[in-house]
Amino acid sequence: MRTFITALVAALALGTGVAVAQYSTPDPMASPAASPVPSPAASPGKATIIVVHIKNFAFSPANVTVPVGATVRFFEDDETPHTVTAADKSFDSGNMNQHDKWDHVFTTAGTYPYICAYHPYMKGTVTVK
User: Fold this and answer.
1) pLDDT band per the 50, 70, 90 thresholds, residue 47
2) pTM flag (> 0.70)
3) CA distance linking residue 108 with residue 105, whole number of Å
4) Hey, where are the domains in the chain?
């Protein structure tokens, strides 16, 4: 009878997809695994991120000044598609729809005027120092 019950329990476990897990307790005397340590190259200084919103057919703020190496993050808050396109075409977000975001890192000092390609009256400037 005992063999029958054991076989029945095993068959039911296999037939229903029930699995038995085996757990082990870590050895308290074992040395802990080493934690990865980022290299200095992987840990640059704190990044500067400046946010510009696109809302009501305007960039807000329209003019920003950032340090070299800063990221400008554009958030598209309008229901109408827009772009962030440099006047000299050196950068272009492509089509942005509502809730999209686009980042651009400015690596060279200078003044970068930009527009929305669909609505050229929407203008802004990034000044990099």
Assistant:
1) confident
2) no
3) 9
4) 47-128
